[in-house]
Predict the 3D structure of the following.
Amino acid sequence: MYGQQSQQQNQQMNDQAIATEFLLSSKSAILGYAAAITETATPELKSTLRDHLNRAIYAHDQISKYMISKGYYHPHDIDEQIRVDLQATQSTLGLTH
């Protein structure tokens, strides 16, 4: 029983870590595309970059919704987000020892 519970906690931590990394990567892509658009003079390239920017924004939205549905992300409740982050940190530290 304990081993199964520990495996479930490990899987949840892995899922949360992957989702968090994916969310941060999508945010980085959004910033990169936005910056590139401001530096581009060619209308065709601007259009292409805008398309990519819109896709990155959509991906970020979908990842955020997934994380909220799983209880990994609380963008409107900072106290709860801090609690979740601290719990994830403590679990990670516990897994490494």
